[in-house]
Amino acid sequence: MQDKNMLMIPGPTPVPESVLLAMAKHPIGHRSGDFSKIIAELTANLKWLHQTTNDLLMLTVSGTGAMEAAIINFLSPGDRILVGNNGKFGERWSLVGKAFGLQVEEITAEWGKPLDPEVFRAKLAADTAKTIKAVIITHSETSTGVLNDLETINTHVKNHGESLIIVDAVTSLGAVNVPIDQWGLDVVASGSQKGYMIPPGLGLISVSQKAWKAYENAKIPKFYLDLKAYKKATDKDSSPFTPPVNLMYGLQVSLQMMKKEGLESIFARHARLTQATRAAMKALGLPLFAPDEAASPAITAVMPTGVDAEAIRSTMKKQFDIALAGGQDHLKGKIFRIGHLGFVGERDILSAIAALESTLQTLGYEGATPGAGIAAAASILAKVG
Amino acid sequence: MQDKNMLMIPGPTPVPESVLLAMAKHPIGHRSGDFSKIIAELTANLKWLHQTTNDLLMLTVSGTGAMEAAIINFLSPGDRILVGNNGKFGERWSLVGKAFGLQVEEITAEWGKPLDPEVFRAKLAADTAKTIKAVIITHSETSTGVLNDLETINTHVKNHGESLIIVDAVTSLGAVNVPIDQWGLDVVASGSQKGYMIPPGLGLISVSQKAWKAYENAKIPKFYLDLKAYKKATDKDSSPFTPPVNLMYGLQVSLQMMKKEGLESIFARHARLTQATRAAMKALGLPLFAPDEAASPAITAVMPTGVDAEAIRSTMKKQFDIALAGGQDHLKGKIFRIGHLGFVGERDILSAIAALESTLQTLGYEGATPGAGIAAAASILAKVG
Fold first, then answer.
1. B-chain residues near A299 (CB < 8 A)
2. A221 vs B245: CB contact, 8 Å cut-off?
3. Half-sphere exposure of residue B272, counting CA atoms within 13 Å on the CB side?
């Protein structure tokens, strides 16, 4: 049906009506006093969401642009960096590092498995000459639904002392606890079309004092992504280049909504949605791609047996107007991914699971008792309150 | 009054209601078949607007990001380039070139005066060793209201043979004739919040075959702004990174509106608005900053005498809710700039001139006969059909 599209992908995520309507306002001049007030409010509320007093910068880029800025502003060609690579996005940061002449050492894990913090500990402990300049981690690996153990890996980085910790929090920020100041995360990048509940087009970066010190010696050339220009402007409630005015109208509203819900409630909601989705998949006999102990709060990847992943996606789209994500690269056609990030509630998850049950019947799947998925999800949701 | 803001600045420019409402639609997945159709439509219509069969690429960046991409994709550190600098933006491309290690030679003109094509001719003719790799021109210099003579300068570049011509068309594209194929412009960059009639957040670039050949030897490191990735994706009606979905909904509608109006009509409208504005300023005894023969179709800069530029801006804003732009850098407080770019009609120009006349009376200005500005503008508008 027209206009019935339901987004259950890891981004763009659904956008609240009040945010959409805010974005439909006439733009105002980005150099006006009225817009300065908006930048000030957004910066303050983003710091609240990021749990940080670090600088919080807004860039007109998508997530990859934000991560590139998070890397190139603090390093020089030839610098040795460790990149965690257990999926499409970890792989991307490795490519970015290489594109800018960094000496990239990958710490890999099979797609679908979390990175092993012990490998980071050993590498960092062995580096007595302190040649490792940065460790780059994808917190929630969107391509596989794996949440890497950032907290433990970061402990090892802190013990090293010299290395920066640079985090892709694109699908973890606003979904699971990422206490930037408490953990001492140096650079954290994310994108608007995820936990922030607005459409794509705005990149967010937090920068620590330690990272700014590294900036002074960093020699990768940059201009549009030069974060010092953003800091100088943000300190004056301004922007160095033209910002995406209407997206920022939307962000004003979405951050107000998030403050009302509260961080703890937001994280609890995402945990509940994740558990309900995973319980349903298990009850339906559909193998989960990531283990329970490393489950992303943003997305659940499923590798079905006895039924075709693409047939599931296709029927879900055609019959129920539900968009699920497919697999990327070698996982294409082998997995489907259910997004439960941002403006997603319990009704949405039940709808998706119910439609999936119906789809499985349509496709003649015989691996589960009909209704078992909803029953399992409901038992998770029943535990609340 | 609340919600009465009228934008008469060079960007963001006013946005049609139908575009705003299109932007308020729920986003869909940018990897879906439905979105591919949108990319295909946008690419075709943008090529129409750009009068080109060259590749036409959309990036999630503001204008500066688009121009950076236009520079760094086709050059290597140490390359000799000529940059026309007669305003804030010409100056910026010089800074970008230097940031990336290019050997920048500026050809300057006083702010408010156009670049002299003869200086380009002489420099290019003297370069018998063909060491000049690119000439970079700001077509419409937004900071001063000067339209540089791109056509003539480009003729000299063509006679040189080796050099690329790279154009900042941010406030000329969609306002004045920029026939990319006819003139053979290699790289042309622009931004969405100008002639395109949508809010900021999308950068546009056209790339010629000659530029793609230069790309093969270009050695400035890049990833997010690597245009080959955009070309590969665009050839498949896709995008390499997450695009600003909702802005692109808006662009769909605005391009449809522009096609309906027609290129000739759009250019004629901008010319009329420019002439009416300039006639009014002259009649009011307010000196124009740029000469008639180099008048930007996007913006008219005025350097008033006998009345304070900032007082005019302030009264226009407070009493009439009209936003005018001020001067930048050393022109701060000395000029005001009236934008007449994009979704601006004849009524808007008359409104702004009438409000300016009222403002001049409020400020006790005695340099003109009351009503002379409107009379002069009307005489221009009366000449039409």
1. none
2. no
3. 22
pLDDT bracket for residue A202 (50, 70, 90): very high
The CA–CA distances, whole Å, from A243 to A1, A139, B246 equal 35, 27, 15
**Residue of chain A minimizing CA distance to B12:** A29
Cβ of A345: how many Cβ atoms within 10 Å? 13
Q: Residue A204: beta bridge partners?
A: A58, A190
Q: Cβ contact (<8 Å) for B11 and A245?
A: no
For A25, the closest chain B residue by CA position comes to B20
Please report the pLDDT score of residue A314 as a whole number: 98
Q: Residues A52, A216: contact at Cβ < 8 Å?
A: no
Residues in chain B with CB shorter than 8 Å from the CB of A95 are 223
Give the ipTM.
0.97
Pick the CATH number of A17-260 from 3.40.50.300, 3.40.190.10, 3.40.190.80, 3.40.640.10: 3.40.640.10
- CB–CB of B241 and A62 under 8 A? yes
H-type alpha helices, chain A: 17-23, 33-50, 63-72, 88-99, 117-126, 150-160, 180-183, 209-217, 227-235, 245-261, 263-283, 309-320, 346-362, 372-381
Ordered by start, the domain boundaries in chain A are 6-12+263-381, 17-260
Which residues in chain A have Cβ-Cβ distances shorter than 8 Å to B191? Answer: 242
Cβ contact, residue pair A242, B193, below 8 Å: yes
Residue B375 has pLDDT above 70, yes or no: yes
Which chain B residues contact residue A224 at CB under 8 A?
61, 64-65, 68, 96, 225
Q: State in Å, rounded, how far the first CA of chain B is from the last one.
A: 36
Structural element, H or E, at residue B85: strand B80-85
State how beta strands B336-339 and B322-326 pair. antiparallel
The residue behind tokens 């949405």 is A348
Question: Of B25, B201, B243, which has the smallest distance from its Cβ to A247's Cβ?
Answer: B201
In DSSP terms, B147 is beta-bridged to B140
B337 annotated as ligand-binding: yes
The DSSP letter of residue A105 is E
CA distance B313 to B81: 38
Condensed to tens digits (0 to 9), the pLDDT of residues A262-307 reads 999 999 999 999 999 999 999 999 999 999 999 999 999 999 999 9
What one-character DSSP code corresponds to residue B82?
E
CATH superfamily of domain region B6-12+263-381: Aspartate Aminotransferase, domain 1 (3.90.1150.10)
Q: Do A65 and B224 touch (CB under 8 A)?
A: yes
**Per-residue pLDDT averaged across B218-236, rounded?**
98
Mutate to test the interface with B, among A241, A328, A343 (most CBs of B within 10 A): A241
The chain B residue lying nearest A63, using CA atoms, is B242
pLDDT tens digits, residue range B136-179? 999 999 999 999 999 999 999 999 999 999 999 999 999 999 99
- With beta carbons under 8 A apart, name residues in chain B contacting A21: 24
Q: pLDDT tens across A34-93, in order?
A: 999 999 999 999 999 999 999 999 999 999 999 999 999 999 999 999 999 999 999 999
